[in-house]
Amino acid sequence: MSPTLTIALELLAPKAPSTPGFPGSLWVKSGTNVFRGVIEYRCLQGGPAEIAGAVRDIVTREFKPGYVVPFAFGTILHFDRASPREADMAPYIDTRARWRDTWQWMIVCDHARKSAFGIHTWMHGYLRPAYEDVLQQLEAQGFTCTSQDRAVDEVFTRMVTWRARLLQARRAVLLVLAALALLTIGVRLLGLWT
């Protein structure tokens, strides 16, 4: 791992790996309602699926995500030789919250080409400043960097659309009920006065 990357201490604190000889660094922020982390990992071999599996194993082993406060994380993956393509890695970024752990972003560093790409979920949250800061650090070290946000998945889009339709229908129903209530009150008032 050539570059030395840092995460701002006001965001996350360094965490000592529990695995001896862990090839990377860990950072964590843990509190009553927040559990976030960043994994910097040197990838020695494997394709995208194997790398994603290794990252999920690291999350389980090093951070032990809970059931009450879910864990969200980002990764910085270093490759000494050719790194996987952006299109092959993008599907591993979660586009909505998972039950125990949500992979919010990754930055893949190809040291042979001195290039890096970042992929972030469509929603920006607590870890976004760390993501942007790492990309800036890599650019300052001479890396060519690109960044993209993953699009919202189709299921979530349908949910949001149906929610908007239900809200519109609710407003229409409430207006009709209000009109009926006013009409009923008016009829009763007229009935009392005649």
Overview in brief:
The protein is an alpha/beta fold. 38% of the residues lie in helices and 26% in strands.
Structure description:
This protein is α/β, with parallel strands linked by helices and 194 residues long. 38% of the residues lie in helices and 26% in strands. Strands 1-2-3-4-5-6-7 form a seven-stranded mixed sheet, with helices on both faces. A hairpin with an 8-residue loop joins strand 1 and strand 2. It is elongated, with a radius of gyration of 25 Å. The model has no long low-confidence stretch (mean pLDDT 85).
Question: How is the topology of this model organized?
Answer:
Blueprint: E1 13-15, E2 24-30, E3 35-43, H1 48-63, E4 71-79, H2 86-89, E5 101-110, E6 115-120, H3 128-140, E7 144-149, H4 154-193
Parallel strand pairs: 3-4, 4-5, 6-7
Antiparallel strand pairs: 1-2, 2-3, 5-6
